[in-house]
Amino acid sequence: MLRAMGQMASQRRRGGLLGGRLLWLTPPALFLQDDLPPAPPPDTPEFRAMEKDIEDRAKAKGERQRKGETWKLKGNEAMQEGELVKAFKLYTKGIQEDKSSRALLTNRALCSLKLNNKKMKIEKLGEEIEVESFTQAIDDCTKVLDICEFLHDNKGPGIKQSQMKAYMRRAEAFCKTNRLQEAIQDMEKALEEIKFLSTSEKQELISLKEKYQEEMKEKERLKEMREAAGLHNNEDVDEQKEKEQEQEQE
User: Would you kindly state where each structural domain of the chain is located, as residue ranges?
Assistant: First the structure.
């Protein structure tokens, strides 16, 4: 491929390709060769150096992906054994190796949900910081959805499952942090944006959406009860709710 690029660049310099303008199609936009640095001619030291650089980068990427997969498997084992903190740290090591791994990110998001908002340490911009696990779950799922959209155009092997996991786990994290409207919106987005959903997958998303809607209605009802009764804390509301339930049973 590089040699072909070099040959086309040579043609361009001679004015023999599209009147001296070589078009490069790089979705979602067209870029003109005039806007890019010229490719070196084939069979030159510069061209061979460029080939080697690309090969070295590909090898390094493959090695990082292999290391990330190893950490993922170790994290899965820790999850199965109920060692959630250990699993979180192992997934984090994997993400440090392979930052665009959808599997590592969705797995860490699931682990973060199970940690029940425990504060965990991660590294951001070279600095170790402490984050609540529900917040980390939201961040990881958001990154997965961005990767699906911008790196894969929401197409390709495994994309649908990555999107399903990301939307469902982010919605759960939203729910656990009292952001029910955002949880509902995530289910709506999933139904609208994920392609080729099966009937059972659609029903699962619809059921979750209805669940969050019911929880939101209940939350609003309790708020109205508290305001009407002049109650100011959850214990008073819970006590009032218990009295209502007892009256219904009678």
Answer: 2-35, 104-213
